Automatic annotation (TrEMBL):
It is an enzyme of class 2 (transferase). One of its GO terms (cellular component) is cytosol. It catalyses: DNA(n) + a 2'-deoxyribonucleoside 5'-triphosphate = DNA(n+1) + diphosphate. Monomer. Keywords: Cytoplasm, DNA damage, DNA repair, DNA replication, DNA-binding, DNA-directed DNA polymerase, Magnesium, Metal-binding, Mutator protein, Nucleotidyltransferase, Transferase. Poorly processive, error-prone DNA polymerase involved in untargeted mutagenesis. Copies undamaged DNA at stalled replication forks, which arise in vivo from mismatched or misaligned primer ends. These misaligned primers can be extended by PolIV. Exhibits no 3'-5' exonuclease (proofreading) activity. May be involved in translesional synthesis, in conjunction with the beta clamp from PolIII. The keyword Magnesium applies. The lineage of its organism: Bacteria, Pseudomonadati, Pseudomonadota, Alphaproteobacteria, Sphingomonadales. This is DNA polymerase IV.
Amino acid sequence: MSDPAAPVRKIIHVDMDAFYASVEQRDDPALRGLPVAVGGGHRGVVAAASYEARKFGVRSAMPSVTARRRCPDLVFVKPRFDAYKAVSRQIRDIFADYTDLIEPLSLDEAYLDVTEDRHGLGSARAIAEQIRARIRSETGLTASAGVSYCKFVAKLASDQNKPDGLCVITPAQAARYIASLPVSRFHGVGPRTAEKLQRMGVHTGADLAALSLAELEGRFGSSGHWYFRISRGIDDRPVRANREAKSVSAERTFDSDLHDRAALLEQLERVAGLAWTRIERAQALGRTVTLKIKFSDFRSITRSRSFVVPIEDEAGFAAVGRSLLEAELPVPLGVRLLGLGIASLTPSNKSLPIQLGLAI
């Protein structure tokens, strides 16, 4: 799979179970056992759903109206991100007892490289079991974990026995395991790609592995190389501690559709302010501003503009957002959501002069 002379890495992917909803059920005993959705509101979306809600088909990113239709008894609670971040820090501290090589993917999941057995527990399985036990003991929450020799297989494994499960896939088991899974479960294969593969008669990892590199690159371009490798269990990506964010953004869903220019620009200013707060917290600046608009029919568009140098103040960031929005006005349908973000990030350096730069 990889260089046979290289030492086998021991990678754990830890994924908290229904994290936001589980924190809410932990902190409010009245919610335990009930179908719970975090987020919602009249025009909002589900940020997270408890396992009781998932039995009805409620999923994250689902419009709250759809979620309520699927589960009439669904209990919506407002998100408390400060509480989720506090628990996430607790969990991160537990990870740090076992390794310095921690790559967070979000508040509720991370990769750990435990090739070095810091506490002499004897195996990555034992380390994962101890981490899960400590998470339960110290936070009152459950986590699932996948253990393998690479990040791709470890992430697949963490989803295998959810919730509150552990799955270990050794190098000898990997080929058969990958071959048995639907390609829709593969990290990096989105819904549209999965549909395209299925139209090609590719439904499982075994089907994907039967295709040549030339076939995959011919149909999927540079992504074809990734599909070729993962179908064979090849993933040499290291666990990257202190991974830098690729983009920072914020968005807002409105209680009623917006059509009026003034109202849209006013709401964009609020979204820009929220996004800039997150940008400052990330201590990074960016060169590419992206506007997201979701219409009343749930169709979304994005518009971007890039600059030679980073945008270093909120006023400049908001001005680019306004320009992108103005170019789309008047809108053909009501707007239910606006988002604004920044990408092509670099570490901020406040000693540099503030300038907007030239578009490219």
